[in-house]
Amino acid sequence: WKAGPAEQLKARRADRNPDSPLVPTGNPLLAGIGPGAWADRDDHPDLEINGNVKIVPLRVDAAYGVAKGDPDPRGKTVFGADGKSGGKCVDIWVDRSERLFRYYEIEVAGGGTVLLPWNFATVAGNGSVKVGAILGSQFAAVPKTKSPEQITLLEEDMIAAYYGAGTLYATPDRLGPLL
Known about the structure:
The protein has 1 helix and 9 strands.
């Protein structure tokens, strides 16, 4: 094992006190602190025991699909916490080892796609998707995958961290105390 370069913290202390909390600098959803922190995992895809990539879009493996009678979000709008569109669901990514869906692939305004972890989404009976963690306008900045048909361990953590950060930093009113 060899240690990599020290990471650059995208935060500053709230005041001069060395015990004061960290405040993100730049885009707080990408700062990598608080609920948006991620582990510096290996940048390669997780593999099944047989060496196949574990998590893939349905378009890659026709053996999987949405069960008859279940809502299918493909082709449906994805709404952020503000009720505004973040994009359109174009595919679903399946974990072939666990036999369950892990991500919704979202086509965002301006082109390109991003992934939405299933546990940050609620799919309605009509297939539309609601996300409470981020706003519709914030989908475009979700970290991208290097490959359109696989996700690395590092990318998984960074994507989940983005939505996790949104639970605290997506709007200024989420930063205050809950009284």
